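Weekly structure sync, notes
Attendees: PL (lead), two postdocs, one rotation student
Agenda item 3: pending single-chain targets
PL asked that the sequence for the first pending target be pasted directly into the notes so everyone works from the same version. It is reproduced below exactly as submitted, 439 residues in total.
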Amino acid sequence: MADTDPSGPVMDRDEVDRALARLGAEHEAIETSLLALQDHAGRRLLEGARLTGVTAERWAVTEASITLLWTYFDAYAGALRRARDIRSRRRWSSREDLVELTELLRGDAVTVAGGAAAALGAAPGRLGERCSLAALVDRMNELYASSLDVVVAADAVWSALPARIDLLAAELQRTGRLAHSVGVRPGEHPAGDDLERITRTLTKLREQVVSDPLAYWKRAEGSSAPGGGRPDTTVYDREARALEDVRREIDAVLTVRQDAEKRIVRLRDVLSRADRTLAEARTARGEVLAKIAATEVPVVGGPPTALQEQLSTAAEYRRHAQWHRLSPLLESLEQKAEDELLRARESLTAVTAPLAVRAELRGRLDAYRAKVARHGLAEDPLLVERYEKARRMLWSAPCDLRAAGRAVLRYQQAAAEALGTAPRVPGQGVPDDRRGPGA
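Predicted structure, written out during the meeting:
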């Protein structure tokens, strides 16, 4: 049965040497990690920043933890140094040395004083606490993981968000200058109000990210590794999308600026055609009233004065580069101008309808006269009488369209009767006899 002490069986020389080798490698790894944490860019930034909110609270805890880490490491290094000193006294360690080494390497032989002892669970009022090297390493691992988590998270947010916010702010400034050049200003255009709001939001976001980076850290679900997560870009992404919407709106206004002159010229042309068509309709109405009797002729409206005034306003907007106001006005005017031209054409058609009817009756009369002439009936007394009567009515002013229409119809009927009994002219076939007056 092996000799024992309060720490368990006494270690032999080989066990001591192996333990010292393992603890030496562990000491080197811990020291490397602590130095890396000490030199970490995130820690230096946290140490020199004016922190607020969540980050201020967590950094206060983390800063104390890092101080504790070095205190624990010093205690660990001191215990390891004492163990190495004892082992180096003689080549073959005595039993007393092995007992002391066993107690130092396996027992609660490390004394931690002050606040570091309280962090290890010492009772209030006690000046120190004894623990084993293994317990001390476990506690250092816990403190290191929590401290590194805070440092890495803050550094990740600072590395990602401020630079992106600055780039977006620069784009915002360029967009703002472009917006101002086309008249998109706060209080005058919704896009101008959006630019002002985005500017305020980005300014506030940058201030918060710099002073409270951990408020913009989203921890990865199910991850326990230090720094497991990513920067929360929700607010940034929302404002970036809003700026893109504003840019599209300004592009639309720029398109208006580029095409405004052509569109205004085209509008002037459409309204001019509508005006000329209405003038023609008014002239035609006078002619109809003079030449056609017993006919109701529609009244022709006046020129599109209201649209001309709006077109003048559009030209004024263009001269003063008020593109944001010009855009909707041009869209409205283009539709109204087309409607006005259509109305003018319909008015001309309605006014000249009696003249068209008279022309159609004249054409029909001449067509039947030509037809009866082809059949050798041009000198037929009845046909000559009825033709002359219809002709006088159609070529006199004012013309009674109803009476003229009846006269043409009587001539058609007489011609049809005559053509039905008269011998056919050589060369004229039956199909030709059956064709209408427009043949």
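Discussion points:
- Residues 1-7, 122-127, 421-439 have pLDDT under 50 and may be disordered.
- The chain is about 75% helix and 5% strand.
Action: rotation student to compare against the earlier draft before next sync.
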